[in-house]
Specification:
Layout: E1 4-11, H1 17-32, E2 37-44, E3 51-58, H2 61-72, H3 75-79, E4 84-91
Antiparallel strand pairs: 1-3, 1-4, 2-3
């Protein structure tokens, strides 16, 4: 199976920023524990505090889809419901 890579960024509305920042460490820790997670990073942009760069790699499409399903049902999914996402997903 092919590795799945997601790269891009999210833009967090100012009214959601504190809640997103509070939940981010938990979201990262839970994702790192997922089967098939190769790498996962969410980094706050130094010039725009509402932008976070996202990079993730999963071993295959099944692992990536399980991650997406977990995220949607998680507290992270709830606190980021108003976030704009700008992603590119590729398979290699």
């Amino acid at each position: 199976m092919s590795k799945i890579t997601l790269s891009g960024h999210i833009e967090v509305p100012s009214e959601d920023l504190n809640e997103v920042l509070a939940e981010l460490p938990n979201h990262i820790a839970l994702t790192h524990q997922e089967a098939g997670c190769i790498t996962f990073s969410v980094t706050r942009d130094s010039s725009n505090p509402q932008r976070f760069d996202v990079y993730e790699e999963f071993t295959d499409k099944v692992a990536f889809e399980k991650h997406q399903t977990r995220v949607k049902a998680s507290h992270w999914g709830e606190v980021t419901k108003n976030v704009e996402r700008f992603y590119t997903i590729s398979e290699a």
